[in-house]
Amino acid sequence: MHDFGFLNSKCAFPKAASAEMAELGLERWHECAWEAEKAEKSGLADFAANMSDNALGRQLLDAVFGNSPFLGSVMLKDPAFVRRLIEQGPDSIQSEILTTLGKSGAEQESDGALARCLRVAKARTALTVALADITGVWALHQVTGALSDFADAALRLATAHVLKPTETQDEFSPKWPDDPERESGLIILALGKLGSKELNYSSDIDLIVLFDPNRIETDDPASLQNRFVRLTKRLMRLIDERTADGYVFRTDLRLRPDPGVTPVALSVAGAETYYESLGQNWERAAMIKARPVAGDIEAGETFLKRLTPFIWRKNLDFAAIQDIQSIKRQIHAHRGGAKIAVAGHNIKLGRGGIREIEFFAQTQQLIWGGREAKLRSSVTCETLATLVDSGHSTAEAVNDLISAYEFLRRLEHRLQMINDEQTQVLPNDPDGIDKIGIFMGYDDAEDFATELTRHLSAVQHHYGDLFDEAPTLGGGEDGVEGPANLVFTGGDPDPETMATLKNMGFEKPEIVDTAVRGWHHGRVRATRSKRAREILTELMPVLLRALAETPSPDVAFLRFDGFLSRLPAGVQLFSMFHANPQLLDLIAEIMGKAPRLADHLSNRAIILDSVLTQDFFDAPPAKPALLEELQELLGRSDYFESKLDISRRWNADRRFQVGVQCLHGTLSTGDASRAYSNIAEVAVAALFPVIEEDFAAKHGRIPGGGLAVVAMGKLGSREMTASSDLDLVFVYTTPGDETPSAVNSDGPQPLDAVRYYARLSQRLINGLTAPTSEGSLYEVDMRLRPSGAKGPIATSLEGFLKYHSQS
Q1: Model confidence pLDDT, tens digit, residues 553-562
Q2: What's the domain range around 742?
Q3: 305 with 377, same domain?
Q4: pTM for the full predicted model
Q5: pLDDT beyond 60 at 318
Q6: What three-state secondary structure class fits 210?
C-alpha cells in the first residue's frame, strides 16, 4: 500500500459536482498512469489504483475530476508529480518546486528553454496550491503566500535571464555577472495583490517597470529608454506568452503613470515627476501595496522611499480628504437595502465584494497612515485589524469584514480553479450555482447562497457606513437605490462601470471611460491641478447622469469633452459646478440639444457666471437698454480692434442668453425672434459710429451727407433666428444738387461720395463679418440691393428710389 501523506480525516473533500465528469476523469487517471508506467517503470499504475481504492484518495480524485476540468488536466499530464505531492505533502513539494526552479532555470540559455521551465513549475504550483486549498490543509494566507512566492521567483529568474548578455543580446553588461540583477538599474515593482503577497489563484500580476540611468554604465545614455522598453517586452513574453506548455502569469503594466501615453518602461525621474505633479489619490492607494520584486531591489526600495511623502501625507487639507472619500463614494453603497442576487454576482467588483473590503482599508490608510505608521501595512486583513487598535473602526465591523474577505477569497479561488480563468463572476443559472456551492463544500445550494448573502450584506452595510456623513455619489438619496458603480480609477476599465454607462444610455461606454481617465491624468489643461481633479472626481457621477438624460448621451459627452479641452483652467469652473449643481444640468442640456450654444460655451466658459445672476432668465431687455449697454462697453476701450472684440463678446453672450431661455422654454419662438433681431440691430447701430469714426480719421466726412443701413429679410421683418445672416442695403445722400461723383470728403485722403460710401459700407461689412480672436458677428448678404450682386455696394437715395419705382 502507498502512503497518502497529507490526506487524513481532517481534510475537507468537496463532493463531485458532476458524477459523470468524476467517473470519466477516474478512467483517464488510470490510463495516464498506465501509459506513464510503461514509459518509466515507476510503479505509477499501482499508485493510481491504490489511490482510487483508498477512501481518502478517491474523495480527492472525485473532488478534482468532478469539479475542475483544469486541475484534472494538470493531474493527467503529470501523474508522477501527483504521486510525489500526495506522498510528501504541499509544504515540502512547494519548497522543492522553488528550489528546483532556481537551479534549473538559471542553467537555461535560451528564452524558449527558460519559458518551458517556468511553465512546468507554474503548473505544478497551481496543482499543489489547489489541493492544499480545497482540502483545507492551508489557510488563506498560506495559499496566497505560496502563489506570490512563486511569482516572485519566476520574475527574478526571468529578469536575471534577460539581463545576461547573449549572442543575440549584448545591450546590457551586468556589473555582477553572477548576479545580473544587482545594481542593474532595472526596477520591477509589484502592485496589487502580488505587491501585498495576496495573489489569487488565476490572477494577473500588476507591474511597473522603471530604470535608473544613474546606476547604469553606458556610452549611449540617449538609447536607454528604447533599450529598456525592448527588455521589458522580452521579459513580459517570458512570463505571459501562451505556449504549448501554457503560461506563467498574465501581466498588466497599466498601473504605471499615465499608461495611455507613456512607454512600458519609465525612468525613475519621469515617474517621480508624474507622482509629484499629477499623481491621484487612487494611485496613492495603489502604491500602498507596491514593493520591488525583481531587478535592482536596492534601487526599487530607494524609489519607494522617495515616494513616501506622496503616498503617506502627514497633513491633508479638507479637499484631499474629500477626494479620498469620493474614491469610496464612486462605488455606490446601495444603502436602500436592495436584495443582493447571488446568480451572476461579481464577488470582487459587485456590492459587498472584495473590492469594497479593500477600499474600506485603503481609504482610511490614505487619511490616517501619514501620521500613524502602523497603518501602512500592505496586507488587507492586517490593516483591518490595526484600524480597530487605532480606534478608527469597530471590532464588530472588522471581524465581519475579515470573515467575509476570507470566505470571498476562497470562493474566488474555486471559481478560478474550474477552468484557470481570471473570473470573479458567479454562474447565472441555478445548476451553475449548485455546482460552485458543492465545490465550496456545501451539500445544499441554499445553504451556500445564504452564507454568501450574509457576507455580502455585512460588507455592504459596513462599507455604506464608512464616511457616512459624506454625500453619496452613486445616485439616489439615502434609502433610494441609484446607479451602480461609476469608477474610473485603476488601470483597467471597470466592468460594472461599463455596464452602468451602458444602462445609463451611453452606446460607447469605452469612449467615456477613456476620456474620463484622460481628464484624471491631467491630459487637458483644465485638469492639470490636483484641486481640479479632486473636484472633478466628486462631480463625475452627477455630470454623467446629467449627460445621460439628453437625447443623445454620446454626442453630449463628446461636446462636453471638447468644451473641457478648451478651458485654460478648471478649478474655478468645477467649484462653480460643485456649488451650483443646476449648472451641470444646464451644461448637459446645452451639450445635448444646442450645438451652437455648446460652441459658444467652449469659447466663452466665463458666460456661466452670468447664468447665476438673478436676471439671466428675465425677459430680454428692449433695444434702448441693449444699445446703452453695448455703447457703455465700447466706450471702455480706445482701440478699434478691441472694440470689434467687445462687440463680438457682447453679441455672443446676449444670443447665448436668448438661446438658453429658448432651451428652457421661458421664451416663446416669436419673442426669441424679436430678441435676436434687437441684438442684431443694436450690434450694427453701435458698431457703425465706431467704424465711421475710424474711417473718417483717414478720409474725413462728406459735409451734409449721410449713410443709412437698411435691414431687409428676416432682420427687416424682425424674424431673426440664432443662425440668421443679415440682409443689408446701404443708401446714402449728398448735399445740394451736385452729382455724388462731384462731392468729395474733407479728410487727408479725400474720396468722392460714390467711392466714400462704397468703402465705408464695405468697412462696416468687414467689421461685422471679419473673424477676430472672438469670432465674427454675422454673415452679411447684399443680394437684395438694387441690381443684386452686380449693383454697387452703396446706392444713392435717388438711384435707390428710381430703381424700385421702375422695377
Answers
A1: 999 999 999 9
A2: 623-806
A3: no
A4: 0.73
A5: no
A6: strand
